[in-house]
Amino acid sequence: MSANQQSIRNPDPPVQDSVFKQFRLDGRTVIITGGAGGIGYEVARGLAEAGANLALWYHSSTQADQLAGKIAKDFGVKVATYKVDVSDYSAVEAAVSKTVQDFGRLDVMIANAGIPSKAGGLDDRLEDWTKVRAIDFDGAYYCLRAAGLVFRKQGHGVGIATASMSGHAANVPQEQTCYNACKAGVIHLAKSLSVEWAKWGGRVNSVSPGYINTAISGDCPFEMKEAWFGLTPMKRDADPRELKGIYLYLASDASSYTTGADFVIDGGYTAR
Ligand code: NAD
């Protein structure tokens, strides 16, 4: 076989005959940021049900240990909690190292933490822009970078970033320029990293949720929710459990040929 033929040879993809086995995560370690609530917590439960051990990263929750204990009990997996501010790279790097030390391996990083904001309007303070960007955009990069350095050494690893439908369309009725721009950036961050990571066997994708019933959207005034539902073909928001499937697909070998893709889960909002 020539050197050229060798370089395009299929390097033994992790294919299983059983589709159910493709979705299993037994013994793998997954970090999920924003893991003590909302989308992060439900996704964590989904991955634990598929056998993953979990490093639940949280920021301000007072219930993280209790929630971690419940997941461990319900699914018989190892779950540990880490208090981490994702906008602080040295904290992220230290928490990745500690996770690898505690679990002995790292297979998946889910950069999910984020805050909503209307920052970015002409009358808004520049400091608000900087704060939102530091969490919603820099934070996603910091998590993927710190995990990516571990993944590259071992020659495999999966990154998943939570973006938003707001990264595809300027979300109305509330103006949220900084959030929209950061989430568009997160989609392209995952795409760009996927090209680099493919060289050594890593994959990166993003998920763009629409209106999901969590603290972020749940606290909005009723009139705003009503307007959102009116703009959503399915005329409702989603339960965060409706996102478990896409994260499990992306975290597992079921998606072994999927990289650089963004998955919009928005009840049809951006299709309209
Ligand atoms: P949530 O408020 O329950 O979760 C956000 C999490 O991010 C919280 O656990 C919070 O503690 C954490 N966080 C905030 N600042 C942090 C920091 N500096 N360091 C570490 N963690 C920090 O809301 P959610 O809806 O579960 O949001 C999860 C992700 O989904 C976010 O990135 C959000 O932008 C995105 N999203 C949500 C919706 C929605 O409608 N709920 C829609 C699209 C995208």
TrEMBL record:
Source organism per UniProt: Anthostomella pinea
Family named by the database record: Belongs to the short-chain dehydrogenases/reductases (SDR) family.
UniProt keyword NADP present: yes
Gene Ontology process terms (BP): mannitol metabolic process
InterPro entries xrefs: NAD(P)-bd_dom_sf (IPR036291), Sc_DH/Rdtase_CS (IPR020904), SDR_fam (IPR002347)
Superkingdom of origin organism: Eukaryota
GO molecular function terms noted in the UniProt entry: mannitol 2-dehydrogenase (NADP+) activity; oxidoreductase activity, acting on NAD(P)H, oxygen as acceptor
SUPFAM superfamilies: NAD(P)-binding Rossmann-fold domains (SSF51735)
Signal peptide: none
Keyword entries, A-Z: NADP, Oxidoreductase
Name the UniProt record assigns to this protein: Uu.00g104590.m01.CDS01
PANTHER family attached to this UniProt entry: BENZIL REDUCTASE (PTHR43008), L-XYLULOSE REDUCTASE-RELATED (PTHR43008:SF13)
